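Feature request disguised as a bug report, sorry. It would help if multi-protein outputs had a clear separator. Right now it looks like this:
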Amino acid sequence: MSRKSVHSVFFSTVNCLRLLPSCRSLFSKAGHSNTQILSIAMLLCFLLSCFDVNAQTIDSLSTNTDSLRLTADSLAIGKDSLLVDSLQLGDDFKSKVKYSADDSIVYDIPGEKIFLYGNGVIDYEDIHLTANYIEINNEQRTLFARGVKDSTDTVRGKPIFKQGSEDFNAETITYNFKTKKGKISEISTQEGESFIHGETVKKMADNSTYIKHGYYTTCDAEHPHYYIAANKIKVIPNNKIVTGPANLVISDVPTFVLVPFGFFPNKTGRSSGIIFPAYGESNLGFFLQNGGYYFGMNDHIDAAITGDIFSLGSWKLNLLSNYSWRYRFGGSFAVSYAETVNSQKELPDYQVNKDFFIRWNHTVDPKANPNSTFSASVNAGSSTYFRNTLSNANNFLNNTFQSSISYSKFFPGKPYSYSVSLSDIQNVSTRDITLNLPSATFNINRITPFQRKYASGSLRWYEKIGVSTTSSIINTISTKDTLLFKEEAIKNFRTGIQHSIPINTSFMALKYLTVTPAVNLTERWYFKSFEKSYDAAADSVLIDTLEGFKAAHEYSASLSANTRIYGQLQFRKGKIAAIRHILTPNVSYSWRPDFGQSKYGYYKYVTSDSIGTQTQYSIFENSVYGTPGSGKSSLIGFSLDNNLEMKLRQVTDSAVNIKKVKLLESLSLSTAYNLAADSLQFSLVNLAARSTIVDNINVAATMSFDPYATNEKEQRINQYYLKTDGNLLRLVSSGLSVNWNLRGKKTDYQSSKGTKQELNSINKNPDDYIDFSIPFNLAVGYSINYTNGAYTADNTIQTLSFNGDITLTPKWKITFYSGYDFIQNQLSYTTLGFYRDLHCWEMRLNWTPMGQQANYNFQINVKSSILQDLKLVKRKDPEYFN
């Protein structure tokens, strides 16, 4: 017999002897003699000793202070064991108490107690308790749990108490089933993102807890790196955590940060609340920054109103809202207004800058309506907004902001569709702004009107003739942003309507040539035209705007032919298996009549000076869709594209594999000749090459040549360069760019923790996310461009740019962005970023060491969003704030 079996028989015998008085009382009332009662008791002891105590089950054992009652079905005996899995303890218990233990279960009948040894488990209603030692007291309706020391004096199997969403780790636990109150010592529990540790805890019937000598933290380490210590803490589940006087402790060192009370939200989901501001000092004075209120309206939409205030008079107000309806649409909206005060009123350089900026991004889920789309991307505001307010490098370097709001509609089974959009382009450097309010397009997709409805065999050439049409309207204005909202700006809007009808087909000729003839018809409608006249007194040309509808039509024709020529050189031996060359020649011809002739009425002549010089002008010049071309065009075009590839043999033990390598992705040459021109018939000769080296180095080069010479004013003249200089072509411009991208192999540094809400936040704010799983990123770009054929500093641009990031350790990350201007011999805009993961804290340093934007921003803060305002910030603003 094993040691465990002997142990079980011993305790079974003892318990049977304890049951003997109760059995005698029970069976005596039934009329049994003492001998019979003793025999029954001995039989019961024998049966109990034959089974493991841990596998016992008493389905119904009713105990009180007067007697122990055993009903006929109180013992359920199976084939191999006697199972004890639940116990009805008194009349105060609404449910059965289910229990088990790995080692043993001991019943103290007179004392009305049950003892669980070795990984004891208690389940009662929504309560789940595990511990190495558990004691149930039926008389007092309580339980007590603790761990047990092993041979090394290490306490193992400490109590873990779970009730609903609450989870406690403790040294000892005492719980009253009747009052549903408990007392816990040395508690450790998690509440949402927070962790609470305490010396003594009282659990109340409403599930709230009172903690004595406790501390609050968001650090999940067993020994937290920081915490807020308080003598009294009250936790209201899914509501809030409140403390008495509290002190911030970092690395077990108390700090000077003392508060009279603490209040921490403890709700799941969205909730409204105050956003506490950051404080500090800058060149604009002492400040409170990003303080305000958050409105957690519902799961679809939220909003936050924040502001900055500076002691020298500057201030800023922000409104930010995010919204999302699943399978419908989502987006974000932000608007900011700022007043920046420079200098003081008594000084001559005193100035108050008023700026605003609006961002709106909106997308519609394709599942909402597959036949239409709507999107918005709005970035608009004052041209000096990012100069007068501290911004990141991308915003500071970006001179152009674009906005677009568009809607498109498709008709299933129909060949037509339409779209409407509003857009603007804003250059903050030149302060130019272009608005299109609105533009609309109606399209009819290509149709083949001559195609047979039931065709047999291949299509005839005329059956491939296709016709499509595009009608568009635009209302636009280009002006300075300072003049945009003036009354006269309305008069400067330009409106036009254009209809375009391309007719084309394609067919094979001479077996290998693809021939594409095409005809293009264009009609333009305008509501304004212009007329010029010469004012002899002022010696100037006057322009009159004529209101009224006018139309202008234009037509042209073209014919192109292209083919592909393949050449391949194969090698039977060696690493190189073959070299293939693909040559793609293209010849085209286009024709357009001279719409500058007087019979069309699109062009007129005006005297431009006192000596009577006549100058041709278009009555539609500066119109939105332009004007029909002046001068006859009969243009022959030629282009030649080359592609060079190599196949390499890769020999392995089992086979010979062929790998394709691109030696030259493209090498193209193009030019044109105008048969109808009376001079300068040749166009520029353009040469372009592009290739990829070692999979991550991209090289591109362009060159433009002119067959004509120039005069002293660098103007083209009708004289070949070969005749004046002895060379066939004159170099006009050239450029070379090399881009190298290198990325390290991804590791498993990055934590997999995170909720769906945190993932959405990362996608919306990728600059705030640090990915340690990629050891390094490096992008290097070199470019050189020059024009007019002279290699001088006046017309040459040569720059080197590089950016990337390096993961020094699983906790250190460095980012950088810089470049070098070889003409100016100086570094371009340079920024450095340092990030340190401090487990529950994080440190950031962003530094721009030079230039007008020179600044730094150092911040160390708690990661948790609950304590996002627990941070230290030190910064130096750019020079233009001085």
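(second protein starts here, but nothing in the output says so)
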Amino acid sequence: MYGYIYSHTFLIIFLFLFFMALLDTLPNRYFEDFPIEFKKLNPEDFTGFDCHKTEIDLDQNGYIADALSPHIDLDIKNTIVINTQVGSGKSTGIINAVKSFYDDDNNYMIFVASPFKSLVNQYYDKLKDVGIDEEHLFNYEDLEEAQKEDYLDKKVHIITVNTLLSNPGDYLLTNSGKKKEYILNLVEFCEDNRIKVVFIYDEIHDAIHNFKELYLFNLWRWKDVIHKNIVLSATFNEASKVVIKNFATLTDNRIKILESERKIIPDKISNLFLFYDNANQYTYKNETVFEVVERIINDNKDIDILCYSRKLAKDLVNGENSKVGKLLKEKYPRKVKLCVSGLIEDEEDLDKNRYDEEYCNVGTNFKTGISIEKENHAFLIIMPPSGVLATFANNQGIFSNGINSVIQALARKRKVGDIYVILPYPKQLQFNTLPFRSVSNVAKDNFIKFYRACARGSNNQLSEYYNLNEQYGELEKFYKENYEDYYDKAKAKYNESQNALNLKLNFPDIDRFILDSGEKCLVQYFEFFGKDLSTFITYSAFTNQFVNCKLAGINLRAPIIIEENDIKNSLKEFVLNYIFKNESLNYLIDKINLKYYYHEFRHELFNYHVVLYKEKETDKLPKVIKAGDVAFIEREIIGVIQRIRFKNEEYNRAYDENNFQNEFVYTRGFYFRSCISHAIQMKDNIGNYDENTQRLINSYILLDKFRELVISTKEQIILRGNRRLYVLPNNINEKITELFNVDEFNVCIEGIVNFDFVINNGFFPFKDGLENTNSLEQRFNSFYKYILQDFFETIPRKVRGINCKEIISNLEIPVFSSVINFLERADYNDGILEKISSTEIDINSIEIID
């Protein structure tokens, strides 16, 4: 049907069996009663305000709307903050609150302020459904065509937060004249008619960026008419507390917190599958993405795909060679929708880009604010790959705001089904920071076992666990060190000076710092709060922290497909995607010898991936191979490392990320000549090496001796015209045999066959031709033919009626500093540590990965 379709059957079975094998052993089974952590709001967060907190409970179905109504006092002027879990019916609570104010005899004007344009029409339709007359509703999207009289007498307005605050966005300096006029007219109308104004802010976590100091002044336009603020979120952050304080100053400094503990409702839990893939980039070529999408489609389930970046979403759907795009378009003819927002919000084609329940949606703009209520459905979330995890916060795309964006994204799925997350391996974790004092040792041990299986990176750079409610303390420490203390002397000198021009500098207090930079600080400096989202996701999945989904399976080995007729390009893709920016391997290549690096490379390929080998010119399904199964692949791996490490040497073509040269072939002859080069260099210090290495050095010194002996037997032939050529017989002759010392021959062959890792494992054909006969003559002849092949460039000749080899050139022994040394042990440079990495992960005994 299209490329690589042959792979799906095997992998689907493989992954299914893997998941089933793990169902009874996954770490989260030991954390069934572990408390779910969430960002709590407390009166002490609002010192100086008249603040009270009430705990409210979800009903048996996990909803909160009915519990909210008695606590929303219509007559009291205050700011109400509703802190409840995702999927608990906050939207229904908003609708009920609007209806209560709408039906009340008092004269209210209600504003429902959303962080997104895409939610405006949703609220408009829902408010109509509960009985609010359309004549009393105003959708701000109709503003451009509206006149003043079209909106002044409307009781309910659905707008965006940036319109309410007159925030024009990042690309303009001021809001449109129409929007300004709209706000000013409504303020004046409410003041003149003594109308009480109620503001309802939904999903406040996604609107924080609007609350810059300049735009906060726009709220004070409403000072004389504002009656109540209602603020809702499932994922409050420290910045939202600052916003709440600003709201409360307009409602007589009164705050009422309504908060519910997070709890799991069994009937609302989806299956969560984590697919770890440490690719530098996720693209339409990525086999994990393809296999997961194919698995879902073969399960006959509908699918939506949330991507961390717009580029990835576009490439998956419209990439010219995108296998994922072909799959989706075959399943959903003319029903695949690309949901990505424009760079400038006002330019967004809303109807084209909004999430649509009737379509298969692939995009970026539905990580929050929408409810996916499809039956028999799977939701795929593609997190930022390992290559984008840098210091720049926006590198992580739609997840650049940290862990709250992850919680919100997972919560989009409201009907029970499957959630798949593709993510890089998490960083190593400092286990003594975990909040496990109350859990059993069995639970701790299983958590550690599984986390170590998933984690990568240096043990010298461990992530730490932090409680969500410790964020203020960490931000306070950061602010004191990098703001207060750092600028202390500068502030003092400024305050002491008498500025004749009365210029003013207002040093940001901690609230201003948190509002402007708090979330960015947490994401940039704390792995657990967003610098490494995989750490947070893995911990949370293992300890049942997500209220709408529960870990049901883990896949640790991303698929790599190698085709027999295209091994070089297959390995090229592997190198570009998994090797070039692999911190561990890049660190190792400068700290250890290349034989160690070679084993680590193989370990990376065969331990952390399912390697599928497709034989050429066959319709057979690819087979899973382990290290050592296919000699040609092993030879290519050695060649790849030769090119990576010595890309500028004379024996190799130029090699970089954009120019992976396929012409270079790493032959047995090149390998032998490299080993001889290092043996010659090492022989003067042979006593510094272990016994086996000494034998190997001696063996290659002898191999070089035999090479020289054969060279010495070349026969010069003079042809007509005095043309001279040199020839060697096709088979060993008596003259050459007499030069070979039997004892030296046996030492040479036994050393190479027994102590050379590459030859012993049969990666180059050599030992079979010497071990499968007891005849010394036949062994000599086989050995001689290897010398002809590996140390000379020849062409067939018939001279004086005898078949022979014309010697075009003697192949030179390379400079030792330009080729891999396979004679050394696989050591660190500063010690003796033999490490031959294991070649297979036992998926039913995951604990062996450390």
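Even a blank line would do. Unrelated, but nice: The mean pLDDT is 85.
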